[in-house]
Write a structure and sequence with these properties.
Peroxisomal Thiolase, Chain A, domain 1, 2 domains, five-stranded mixed β-sheet, binds oxa(dethia)-CoA
């Protein structure tokens, strides 16, 4: 087992997920950390999601495979996260390849002429290259006449890209915008780090935005950042501040580093607060919302939000047990699956919430 394992399992072999709210020890501790909050919210209507596409790689990596290969504590990953398996991209796939596959599916579902797409936004923190952007690779592979740019907000990347694309649509400066969340996390995690590697998987999701009716779009949204917490989830070397050296690579400093326990404490706080704020500002209750789609990081974070906010299970869509945490792809991949199951209809209210490195978060109440 990796020496960086942040904690030994409470009861080895017990696969039943502990619900946080039923743990008096944990209740007595909360909340212990102070994080930046925001009361800023905005509204952006006249925007519609006209189609969704998703792509998950073929290769399934089970917990058992990782436990056998790296000596992870049997049952730890499922018990502490709810994740049973994840997908890994093929060796010859880059993030743009996943993004293009998801985008093609979204374009086909909408039945639009690709020539009409004039904007490509890609939320990713695992780009094919530092430069050029993944969005430019996607634009080229799809043969589009479109502006193209990446947004780096890690697991909030799709929500930042969605809100950005919506601005272009609402102003009429874009007729059809392709908003993509795509990440290949398997390439940046330290494979033997039990506290990080088994949580993450690879995927891409894409939505097509177009002008909608005046009551469609982001009835209320919040994009937040707390850079003071940046070191809680980062890749400390490889950028301009600390360029790569052979020694840094040898010591594994180029991998994603996560202080999972403190990220967890931040997440349960920010997720409940931002969702409550959005609902209050929009003047809607939990009952009015058809579906809640939260970033698929850890079932215990989602369970905690459901418990505090009083959200019934049938209103929450989760797929993390099969795909793990796919960072910027997490929300659009879940949306696509929910849509395929007939859970999203025109006029429905959908609450989406992304959170992750930066620290960043993005929450939106979207009238479909
Ligand atoms: O995608 C980007 C965002 N990434 C994440 O959201 C990942 C967040 N982290 C995790 O998913 C988990 O921390 C790991 C799976 C990485 C590790 O799990 P663990 O080692 O079983 O720790 P934990 O998550 O159960 O607990 C983390 C901390 C603990 O505090 P201490 O003992 O380290 O001081 C818990 O007591 O969170 C504490 N905690 C709470 N604190 C306040 C748990 N529930 C609560 C609560 N209020 N309701």
């Amino acid at each position: 087992m990796n020496s960086q394992n942040p904690v030994a399992p409470a009861k080895t072999g017990d696969l039943v997920l502990e619900r946080i709210e039923s743990n008096p020890k944990v209740q007595a501790q909360a909340p212990r950390l102070m994080f930046r909050k925001s009361n800023r919210t905005n509204t952006l209507t006249g925007v519609a999601v006209t189609s969704i596409g998703a792509y998950v790689p073929d290769r399934i990596v089970t917990n058992a495979e990782l436990e056998n290969r790296y000596g992870f504590e049997p049952g730890w990953v499922e018990k502490r996260t709810g994740i049973k398996e994840r997908r890994y991209a093929a060796d010859d796939e880059g993030t743009s390849d996943l993004a293009v596959k998801a985008a093609r599916r979204a374009i086909a579902a909408a039945g639009v002429d690709p020539a009409e797409i004039d904007l490509v936004l890609v939320g990713t923190f695992t780009p094919d290259y530092t430069c050029p952007s993944t969005a430019c690779l996607v634009q080229n592979k799809l043969g589009l006449d479109a502006a193209a740019v990446d947004l780096q907000a890690a697991c909030s990347g799709f929500m930042y890209a969605l809100a950005t694309g919506a601005q272009f649509i609402a102003t009429g400066n874009s007729k059809r915008a392709l908003v993509i969340g795509a990440d290949i996390n398997s390439r940046i995690v330290e494979p033997s780090d039990q506290g990080t590697a088994p949580l993450f998987g690879d995927a891409a999701g894409a939505v097509l935005l177009e002008a909608g009716s005046s009551n469609q779009g982001l009835l209320c949204y919040q994009l937040g950042a707390d850079g003071a917490g940046g070191s809680m989830l980062d890749r400390p070397v490889g950028g301009t501040a600390r360029p790569l050296t052979a020694d840094l690579i040898t010591s594994g400093q180029h991998y994603l580093k996560m202080d999972g326990r403190n990220v967890f404490k931040w997440a349960i706080q920010v997720v409940t607060e931002t969702i409550q704020l959005i609902l209050d500002r929009a003047g809607v209750g939990v009952d009015d919302v058809k579906l809640f789609v939260l970033h698929q990081a850890n079932i215990r974070i989602i369970d905690h939000a459901m418990s505090v906010l009083g959200i019934p299970a049938h209103k929450v869509f989760n797929n993390l047990e099969r795909v793990g945490n796919t960072s910027a792809a997490s929300i659009p991949v879940a949306l696509e699956e929910a849509n395929r199951q007939g859970k999203l209809e025109s006029g429905d209210l959908v609450l989406m919430c992304g959170f992750g490195a930066g620290l960043t978060w993005g929450t939106g109440l979207f009238r479909w």
